[in-house]
C-alpha cells in the first residue's frame, strides 16, 4: 500500500472518531439541558452518581422527561399516542443496534455499551404514559401508586442498572422511593393541572371529603382540598419511611439512585409548612444541592 493511501485511511479513521465523539458530546449536552430545564432536582441528584454511570443516568432521566412531556405538549390524545409509538419504535431500534438519530436514543445506545439496561422498564414506562394520555382521575390511592410504580419506580430500576446493581433490597427501596416520587409529582403539579381543568388526585379520597373536581376548578384552595392533600401526602411519606427501612441492607453503591427521595421529602415538608395548601408551597431551589450533598455524605435518604 502506498504511503498516500495509508495516510488517507488514517485521516478518514480520525475524522470518523472525531465525528462520533462530537455526536456523543452533543447528545449528552442535549440531555443535561433538558434535565436542567424540566427536571432540575433530579438533574442535581444525578451529579452524585459516579462519573462512569452518569451518562447512563442522564440518558434514562432524559427519556423519562421526553415521554412525560408528551401529555403536556399535545392536546389531542391521538397525536400523543403517535409520539408514544415513535418512542416505542425508537427503543426497539436502539436495542436492535440501530438507534434513531435522536440525542436521547443515541445516548441510551452509548450507555448500553457500558451497562445493560432492561428493555422491560422502558416498555412499562411507555405503557403507563400512553394510558395517562386520556387524563384519568385515579379512582383510588392504589391506582395512583400503581402509576407511580410503573413510571418513577421503573426509572429508578434503570438507574440502579446503570450503576451495575442487581440487589433485591435496593429494588424494594427504589420501588418505594419511586412511589413517593410519583405521588409527590402529582401533588406538585395540581395547581398547573387545575388551570388546564385536569385533576388526578384520587376520586375515592375526594368523595370522602365531599369535594368534587368541579369544586376545585371553580374555587381552587379549600379546607377540603387540604384534607385530601394531607391523605395523599401521608401515603407518599409512608413510602419514604418504608424505603429507609430497606437502606440498612442495601449496598451503599445504590445510594446515588435513591437520592431521588430527597426532593420528595423536601416537598412534603414544605407542603406541611403550608398547611397542605397545594397552591402555597414554597421551595427554595438553591437549597436542594446542599440537601442532596448532605444526604450523600451521611448515607441517608
Poorly predicted spans: 7-19
CATH architecture of the largest domain: Orthogonal Bundle
> How many strand segments?
0
Total individual domains: 2
CATH topology of the largest domain: Farnesyl Diphosphate Synthase
Mean pLDDT: 93
Q: Outline, from the CA principal axes?
A: globular
Report the sheet-strand fraction. under 5%
Using the CA coordinates, give the radius of gyration: 21 Å
Counting copies of identical and different chains, the oligomeric state is single chain
> From N to C, what is the helix and strand string?
HHHHHHHHHHHHHH
Enzyme class: transferase
EC number: 2.5.1.32
InterPro entries: Isoprenoid_synthase_dom_sf, Squ/phyt_synthse
GO biological process, one term: carotenoid biosynthetic process
Secondary structure elements and pairings:
Layout (H helix, E strand, L loop, with lengths): L2 H36 L1 H7 L4 H23 L3 H19 L7 H12 L4 H14 L8 H22 L5 H28 L7 H6 L4 H7 L3 H25 L7 H4 L2 H13 L14 H11 L3
